[in-house]
Structures are given as C-alpha cells and as structure tokens.
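User: I've been trying to design a sequence by hand for this structure and keep getting stuck. Would you show me what you'd pick, starting by listing the structure so we're on the same page?

Assistant: Good idea, let's start from the same input. This is the structure you sent:
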C-alpha cells in the first residue's frame, strides 16, 4: 500500500508540469511575435521612456525578457500592441538592449533590440555648430545637458 501511494504521488508530480506553467493553466495558442519596436534607437542619457512593441499573439501573461533574464511587465496590452516603461537607468551608456517576449506555456518570441546611441546634442557639438546655435542650445536644454 505504501509503495502504491508513493508511486501515485510521484506520477502526479511528474505530470503536473505538463498541465500548468507555475500557477497559470496552459492554453493553446501561438507564441508571441514582434514585428516592430518604437523607438528602436534612444540617445544615451535620455529620461524614462515608454517603448511600444507591435506584433501578434500578445496576452496579459506576456512579459518582456531582457538578455540578462530580467522581466518587465507591460504598462498596456492588446493582442497586437504592448507598451513597456523603461527607466532612465537603461540609457546610462551607449550599447544595445536585447530582449524577447515570453508568454509562459505558449513560448517565446523572436528577439529584437533597442540601440542606445551617443547623444548627438551634447554641448561640444552645439558649440561647433554656430549656424544652428539657437536650435542646438534648445535641444541641449531639453535633453538636460545644459
């Protein structure tokens, strides 16, 4: 009797992951797919930014997964558009923010990235551009460089 009880409990524990993903029940459907990200280029030193991802097969369970495994929950979700809030910390330096979407049991999306580029409106380039100094000074003030 004891052996039968243990083997039954083991069978339940082994098959349980087949029917659920953590606490959520798996539903049939396709993995999320991204078709575009906006903005796909952000200047280093930018403030917090809302990033829109368009594609298909998005749901309330879809999260953005960064290359280091960090997950961001969406601010808003429809089946074809999601928005995420990226804090200013993401834009401290030049580089690439690589990520994909994950939807639990339905799988992961294609990967994409946001390029963090050097800020073209820094004070040195403003000083060199005498012809557009007014415009350049305004841009420098708006981006917090002045």
């Amino acid at each position: 009797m004891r052996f039968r009880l243990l083997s039954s409990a083991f069978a339940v524990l082994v098959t349980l992951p087949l029917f659920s993903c953590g606490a959520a029940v798996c539903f049939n459907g396709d993995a999320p797919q991204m078709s575009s990200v906006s903005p796909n280029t952000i200047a280093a030193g930018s403030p917090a930014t809302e990033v829109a991802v368009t594609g298909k097969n998005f749901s309330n369970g879809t999260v953005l997964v960064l290359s280091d495994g960090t997950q961001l929950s969406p601010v808003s979700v429809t089946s074809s558009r999601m928005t995420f809030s990226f804090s200013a910390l993401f834009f401290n330096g030049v580089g690439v923010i690589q990520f994909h979407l994950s939807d639990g049991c339905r799988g992961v999306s294609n990967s994409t990235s946001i390029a963090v580029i050097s800020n073209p409106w820094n004070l040195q380039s403003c000083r060199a551009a005498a012809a557009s100094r007014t415009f350049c000074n305004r841009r420098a003030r708006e981006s917090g460089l002045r």
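That's my pick for every position. To get oriented when you compare it with your attempt: Confidence is low (pLDDT under 50) at residues 5-20. The radius of gyration is 23 Å.
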